[in-house]
Amino acid sequence: MLKAAGVVTFAIGSRMANSAEMQVISSDPNYAYSVPDFVNLSRIQQSLMKLHLFLLTEQSDEKGRDIVFLLDGSDNTRNGFSAIQDFLYKVIERLDIGPNKDRTAVIQFSNEALANFFLSSFMRKEDVLTAVRRLSHKGGRPVKMGAALKYVKEKVFTAASGSRNTANVPQILVVLNSGASSDSVDLPVASLKESGVRILTIGTKNSDHKEMEKMSHAPSYTLSVAEMAELPSIQEQVVAAITEDKLKSEISETEVIAERKPPGKDVVFLLDGSDGTRRGFQAMRDFVQKAVEKLSVDDNKDRVSVVQYSRDPAVQFYLNTYTTKGDILDTVRGLRHKGGSPLKTGEALQYLRDNVFTASAGSRRLEGVPQVLILLSGGRSYDSVDAPATALKQMGVLMFAVGTRGSDLGELQKISHDSRNAITVPEFTDLVLNCLSCCLFSVDTGKKDVVFLLDGSDGTRNGFPAMRDFVERVVGKLNVGPNDDRVSVVQYSRDPEVNFYLNTYTTKEDIVDSVRGLNHRGGIPLNTGAALRYVRDNVFTNSSGSRRLQGVPQMLILLNGGKSSDNVDTPASALRQQGIFVIGIGTRNSDRSELQKISHEPRYALSVPEFTDLPGVQEQLSTVLSTVRVRGTPMTPTVTGKKDVVFLLDGSDGTRRGFQAMRDFVQKAVEKLSVDDNKDRVSVVQYSRDPAVQFYLNTYTTKGDILDTVRGLRHKGGSPLKTGEALQYLRDNVFTASAGSRRLEGVPQVLILLSGGRSYDSVDAPATALKQMGVLMFAVGTRGSDLGELQKISHDSRNAITVPEFTDLAGVQEQLQSSVEAVDVVFLLDGSDGTRNGFPAMRDFVERVVGKLNVGPNDDRVSVVQYSRDPEVNFYLNTYTTKEDIVDSVRGLNHRGGIPLNTGAALRYVRDNVFTNSSGSRRLQGVPQMLILLNGGKSSDNVDTPASALRQQGIFVIGIGTRNSDRSELQKISHEPRYALSVPEFTDLPGVQEQLSTVLSTVKAVPPSRKPPGKDVVFLLDGSDGTRRGFQAMRDFVQKAVEKLSVDDNKDRVSVVQYSRDPAVQFYLNTYTTKGDILDTVRGLRHKGGSPLKTGEALQYLRDNVFTASAGSRRLEGVPQVLILLSGGRSYDSVDAPATALKQMGVLMFAVGTRGSDLGELQKISHDSRNAITVPEFTDLAGVQEQLQSSVEAVVVDVTPETPTETGMLTSAPPCWLERLPDLFHPVVGKLNVGPNDDRVSVVQYSRDPEVNFYLNTYTTKEDIVDSVRGLNHRGGIPLNTGAALRYVRDNVFTNSSGSRRLQGVPQMLILLNGGKSSDNVDTPASALRQQGIFVIGIGTRNSDRSELQKISHEPRYALSVPEFTDLPGVQEQLSTVLSTVRVRGTPMTPTVTGKKVTDFYTPMSL
């Protein structure tokens, strides 16, 4: 019966259940689960939830669609209505109508909407088609599409009308329209889209196509015909759009399960484990145990971590280590006192901030879960607690400090988030549960901003005294103060009125007095929507006392006594998006569905029969008030080279005459952007009384489409001018991910405002909000504008520009364009004896370049450095902030003189001393860094390493030399060889001025990030019983190795781990930042002891806990990871899998053993068998110290000019060309450093299908490869399937088994030699190669399709061409340059490995 009714049944039984019976009951035998006992139900919870999600999304496919047709029934369509009817009939005929399949509704509209039938009206196709045949034209005017869309949202896409939206059935609206709407469609369209309705629009030549695009789900969902009679021509398109699978697949898991703010809290116990707490440690342990017993761990509400500290901290377990209360309690009971001194509480707090209150350690802070720290400390800290305590508070951690008589109460109060939460007891044995409850259950002492919105309409007159009493009682429970809770009260009926703001009163008494004096306002109708919008824009603002932007939770408590006369959907959604937590309390006269929409979640919509019954929900409200925590907005990094640009245009009545000039301005600005390669995105919004989006950031992807739309923009009109509302609209609707903004990816956000008058509303709060989001704002006004207002809006007051009229915009176009991009420019001038005569010309050149820059602290910055034997800074990047000061300083420069010319030392100097934060460089903020070198001779020292280091740091170098310079040296130094410019003498510098200006204006992006210097070194020491005698020697070995590292400048990091039966971290990679601290700790290491020796488990532990970002590893930043194992015996467990896992992570492993070790095991562990070393005893380690040090340096160098590549050649050349292949191939391979651990090469031929001549791991010497190439025979065959061949090399050659080292981060290159157009499509396989990080160079002949080659190549410029294959030597040099300079970024999960390449040559075989 249940199965026949479509009920999906799951059966769960215990060991006593009959499994066959359970399978019969279940809808599917796989849905029958078994557990030993019901207490073990948690074991299958995850599996059951996944299956539940799968079924939900699967069933959404089975339930069809809800399709609503909204037809223009106005007078405009009278003649065409029969065509609409026929069209509708034919489309519905193609649908699969049924109660659990497709459902349809038809609505007509003109001046109002009329339902012909609802989604629930007919469940058989015959009935629907009969109803369509009987449709009669509605008639009427004007056309109010906005009102019709609102009607559809509120009356048709509802459960009562047959919508299955809550069951995740796709909701589709098809709009047929024949003219522009007389009312605005913006809000109802936004509301429909928010509800998940996909809109398809069909218009005629009289329709407003911009309006239709705005309504449509996507541009491809906007269709058009000249007349309604032509509807049959788009019938197939409409049916395809309605029935296409993507509509179903767009119902994602995020729509199936609404995101909820997780309950509970993350609790970290920080225990003083120093020598002074040895006697009290048992009591501390008991305290933690009792606290954990009161938490809700098993349902994943609460998480727990315990950290002990003395001199340094030691994590006992992280927040995500255990998921059951039993496991936590077992571990707590087994805690042993750490010991040690002195007591460094400050360092421990900092450690918690960096390593425990992090997502990787299980913290859910970014999900809004309260973070609680309970400190038990028995003494005064040896170091300062101020900065780390403040840092934790700024992260929102609620801190409670418990001390004894030996503690410093002042210090405990500094640490606590509130001084009242610092508690002292005589001894830890006096810790009692009231301390515990104070810590755990007063989490609600975190400050809040609470706004009461009271229904003051005529309908609540009798209940108003009860509302007033309720507010008073709630306020009585709050902790009111300027730095604690703040309260505001607003009344509303037809419109809202503030009784007092969040910053009006700072004491509970004043608030209560004011509440007692409140008078009922009265009035009708009840506009709840307008009131919600008002509190959002005027009360939850900085100027009104809201601390939302500081991360303080924002709460709105609505007391409502009736249904709203206006729509609440959009303003309620806006409050939710802004992170405001809304609780709605209504009476029997309220609309419960409306209250649920308004509330943060439906369960926060509370109800009472009358307002006099409000005390009944008092407790419920107090619970919510005490537990809610609202998520803040995390800061995002800045990504350079791209930007999202929004133009906000004043379209009010006052700008009608100037609108053409505004349009031209936008057009010229867009022409200078890089849209087609997806670097830049553009949006245009017009506004007057309200804003209207012309197109979003993700509407168009080509410059042509944007320019076409801009040229067709029409003036909006309207008054008054509400710039504040428009800015707020941009913040909420345009600078969002759904509208195409890449802000969260770190892409710069730019707003350019063109405004012709003073705003009718305040711009302060929305402008501040945009700035805090990181939007760079530029405001351009006319004589009618308010300059002060423009300056408030702009991110810097100097970016507020005025012109007499908009027709004068051309005069500021260049100024504004340059303002959008900032750059840090350093001039490095050769001041040696050889440039004495040319120095005045160099000085003039610098002055002219600076003259073109837009100098300012937030714009361009300039530094000048001279050098000869050694460098000297004339001024730094932050020395001067005006162009005049820089020019004055440049004019006063004196030639320095001196020999020899050490360009290498000068490059190193500017990198380490000028391109730094302290010297004014903004590299870490993503501002492009440029170095302009003026050089007059060959360097006496080597430039390779410092030039490479600059490149790795993302500094763009332009080298300008004279006839005396070494051109090859300049090309090495420059970002690319083409950026090495040359003049006969320095007096000829004006000749490259224009060239340099072009580079300055076009270079937007910092070059791809390179491997930072240094390494992360982990020593894994065998601390088992068998190494007790040799441990001193191991310690000495580590000490000597550390002495040779560069720790103090943060190049190298060190960690030490001891292991026997299990591993014990002595310190992590981020525990110490100075060599002195590391050496002190190493000297104090004590032998661990224990058996058996589990090296496999220790290696796995390192992978999971030490080579991680949270433990200080910089693997994901490309820093080499080194493991040095000292082991004195054979492992009790297998090392194979963990060693392989570490190698796949890119860890370079060296294993040193003694006579008791297993050499084969050591070789398995080492990344290269030659790096497995043995000594008779550990006391003989000194003899291999130097050897090991050299081995480490050989594979890990701070800067490597050559990066490894794996290259493949794919060719389709005719037989005659194969004779020439060695001529091309030999020089190319000759440039490679072939070897199993260096460069690798493969060759593949293809025509109809591909054939591998040899794989990447077939040959390991250059000679073998060249011999094999000489012996290649032409394969022949037709047609030429380049697409299939590309797919083949991706799946069969660039793989681990074929010798590819892509997963180890080795760059992958494919060189394609192609002689004709492909018979199959190359787009998808080319894209797949690109996504996999394979760098493709395409070389073709005159018979090749150039466009196809450009698609295949990494970038169009890497598609090379020759007339015939016999002319290939002509591209030899070009190819060599690419091979030597190109560096491909690996997968984000893998590090970069230096010193190797893999080259795959792919040659076509067609005739």
UniProtKB/TrEMBL annotation:
SMART domains: VWA. The keyword Coiled coil does not apply. Keywords: Cell adhesion, Collagen, Extracellular matrix, Repeat, Secreted, Signal. The keyword Repeat applies. GO terms for biological process: cell adhesion. Residues 66-238, 266-440, 449-621, 644-816, 824-996, 1016-1188, 1195-1375 form the VWFA domain. PANTHER family: COLLAGEN TYPE VI ALPHA 3 CHAIN, VWFA DOMAIN-CONTAINING PROTEIN. This is VWFA domain-containing protein. It comes from Sparus aurata.
